[in-house]
Design brief:
The protein has 616 residues and is of the alpha/beta class. It has 19 helices and 22 strands. Helix 3 (105-112) packs parallel to helix 4 (128-134). The chain is elongated and about 110 Å long. Bound molecules: nicotinamide-adenine-dinucleotide and 3-phosphoglyceric acid. 3-phosphoglyceric acid is lined by residues 121-123, 144-147, 170, 352, 354-356. It catalyses: (2R)-3-phosphoglycerate + NAD(+) = 3-phosphooxypyruvate + NADH + H(+).
């Protein structure tokens, strides 16, 4: 097996089975009772070569192809909101693109089962029902923007669907819009404009307030918040910020003090909101918090409508606590036509225009198109929202170990006898690297994939591996063994132990009674190096027969000739024994699956005490 596969391509979403995960799956993993009863048709080896959805020749991916990809076709991308042309052009060069705007929820559900990726902005609700309707085909949701509050991330993760966003391209546009609202609110620009156009000349009515020397409280000191702060400093404002997760140094570097929430809201003359909408920020601005604000405060919201209790804001405007508000975003978009908040004379509104500049939209479109295409190809997604982001160089280094991890999982689960099912998996990494220098998340995910996929209808990738394991009552314990030596290669070996299970092949049991297999990477290829307590050395390719026998001359020859007589090509063979004349394990790699008759003859061979046939 060639392992030239660039690891960037090994990530999660290149493919999916056409079937959805089995909702009626058992809570633990009970493998088939007989080795030969494995449902071969359902063994989706991630290593099987398959046509790539990409127009370019691609390498193998660790995941199985989607319906369209497996048919050798281009993937299909559904775009449900207007996207910049540069991004659309990129998508069209790679995929069939269906631009269908203003779909009803029902229409969206009808379309998603026909597409591999979905690209949305904030106006499309990608709900659990959408993922269910996709029936396993949808592999990527691309959010052309920052906020992913319109995507049900949990449902996406459960479906193994990667969500990517475009987090940087609209930052400046949003910050500029916040500053535009801040300045126009302070000088009543919108109200005065409407008044003059209505034929009035009301100079004394529209006396504003100055910005210089006023305190701006920036709530949420992330990308947009810090850009707003930088710009407002240029307007002569004093800036304070509150963000529980922002680094103090970054704030200090641009002359901003990070303060507590209460201090920010009680001392600011202007408050600009820049946090995401999450369960903990929903309605964070409510009657109680408005009551703590300085009387006559002015509020700008370019973040999300849902962080403000809009009825409480209306009350605060009416009682003068809040002098003015400038709102780009609303709990319900578009807001009702008769919304008292929108109609309020001290409120300036824009229809969610924060990201709407020509430049930002082109940038966002390119950013999301590249992310979606990369994800469909199985590349590392740098802007993944629901999957671990493993740096490209780490992935590249881990490439052969990723293959090894899945092979070991696939192999070990086939050694389990029916019965109680697999509940605890221990993965032991031996490495000279400090644990902090070894990111094992992708390896853990691939062991899980190897264990779960052969015995269920679940599709497992790096997005949903932990979820699937949990759902099935599978506990994955990771342990490290720190070896002496120079940390040039990331790992020496990976062991996978299944505890508290019976094995159909007693030779696979360790002294502690676990089913144990170990593998190493040799010359870039995965090798099986330990079965139970027996050292072997076989390349993990094709199919494998493990035989346990009494160590004596002639057994290897007998088994070899049974296979030869049946036209089964032996690709490699390795024997490991405890001591001369005692127990030995013979590991035989075979290209073809032997007929049952051949397997029976092996079983009947004198000195062969047990054997098992395994598909890798
Ligand atoms: N109106 C628009 O068109 C528009 C455009 C871009 C971004 N946005 C919105 O602006 C917001 C910020 O975007 P961003 O790109 O700066 O995101 P970001 O992730 O860079 O910054 C968000 C910041 O909010 C902080 N935060 C989280 N919970 C908080 C809390 N309880 N109190 C204070 N801070 C908290 C985070 O630590 C983070 O630093 C998002 O809601 C995004 O959806 C709107
Ligand atoms: O979160 C964002 O990126 C902004 O709210 C922009 O949303 P939009 O893509 O719908 O303009």
């Amino acid at each position: 097996m060639a392992l030239a596969t660039p690891l960037r391509r090994l990530l999660p979403v290149a493919a999916a089975p056409a079937t959805a995960p089995d909702p009626a799956a058992p809570s633990s993993l009970t493998p088939p009772r007989r080795a030969l009863s494995l449902r071969h048709g359902r063994l989706r080896s991630s290593l099987a070569a398959f046509p790539s959805p990409s127009p370019e020749p691609r390498s193998r991916s660790l995941t199985a192809p989607s319906a369209s990809a497996s048919a050798g076709g281009r993937p299909t991308v559904l775009v449900t909101e207007k996207l910049g042309t540069a991004g659309l052009d990129l998508l069209r060069a790679f995929a069939n693109v269906d631009c269908s705007y203003e779909l009803t929820a029902e229409e969206l559900r009808a379309k998603v089962s026909l597409v591999d990726a979905l690209v949305v902005r904030s106006g499309t609700q990608v709900t659990r029902e959408v993922f269910e309707a996709a029936r396993g085909r949808l592999r990527v949701v691309g959010r052309a923007g920052v906020g992913i509050d319109n995507v049900d991330l949990q449902a996406a993760t459960e479906a193994g669907c990667l969500v990517v966003n475009a987090p940087t391209a609209n930052t400046v546009a949003a910050a500029e819009h916040a500053v535009a609202l801040l300045a126009s609110m302070a000088r009543n620009v919108a109200q005065a404009d409407a008044s003059l156009k209505a034929g009035k000349w009301q100079r004394s009515k529209y006396i504003g307030v100055t910005l210089v020397g006023k305190t701006l409280g920036v709530l949420g000191f992330g990308k947009v918040g810090s850009e707003v702060a930088r710009r407002a400093k240029g307007l002569g404002m004093d800036i304070i910020a509150h963000d529980p997760y922002a680094p103090v140094d970054r704030a200090r570097a641009i002359g901003v003090d990070l303060v507590s929430f209460d201090e920010a809201i009680s001392t600011a003359d202007f408050i600009s909101l820049h946090m995401p909408l999450t369960p903990s920020t929903e309605k964070l601005f409510n009657d109680e918090t408005f009551a703590k604000m300085k009387k006559g405060v002015r509020i700008i919201n370019v973040a999300r409508g849902g962080v403000v209790d809009e009825e409480a804001l209306l009350r605060a405007l009416d009682n003068g606590t809040v002098a003015q508000a400038a709102l780009d975003v609303f709990t319900e978009e578009p807001p009702p036509r008769d919304s008292k908040l929108v109609q309020h004379e001290n409120v300036t509104v824009t229809p969610h225009l924060g990201a709407s500049t020509t430049e930002a939209q082109e940038g966002v479109a390119i950013e999301i198109a590249e992310a979606v295409i990369g994800a469909l190809r199985g590349d590392l997604a740098a802007t993944a929202v629901n999957a671990p982001m493993v740096p490209a160089e780490v992935l590249s280094e881990l490439s052969p170990y990723v293959v090894l991890a899945e092979k070991l999982g696939r192999l070990v689960v086939q050694l389990v006898a029916g019965g109680s099912g697999v509940k605890v998996v221990k993965v032991v990494y031996s490495s000279t690297r400090d644990p902090d220098d070894l990111d094992t998340r992708i390896l853990r995910a691939m062991v899980t994939k190897g264990i779960v996929e052969p015995i269920s209808s679940a599709f497992v990738n790096i997005v949903n591996a932990d979820y699937v394991a949990k759902q099935r009552g599978l506990r994955i314990i990771e342990e490290r063994i720190l070896l002496d030596g120079s940390p040039e290669t990331p790992l020496d070996s990976i062991q996978v132990h299944l505890t508290n299970v019976e094995s159909k092949f007693g030779g696979a049991l360790s002294d502690a009674g676990d089913i144990r297999v170990e593998g190493k990477v040799k010359d870039g290829s995965p090798h099986l190096t330990l079965v139970g307590s027996f050292s072997v050395d076989v390349s993990l390719e094709g199919n494998l027969i493990l035989c346990r026998q009494v160590d004596q001359p002639g057994v290897i020859g007998k088994v070899g000739s049974i296979l030869g007589n049946m036209n089964v090509n032996v690709s490699f063979m390795s024997v490991g024994r405890t001591a001369r004349g005692k127990q030995a394990i013979m590991a035989i790699g075979v290209d073809e699956e032997p007929e049952k008759e051949a397997l029976k003859l092996i079983g009947d061979t004198s000195s062969v005490e047990e054997f098992v046939f395994l598909k890798l």
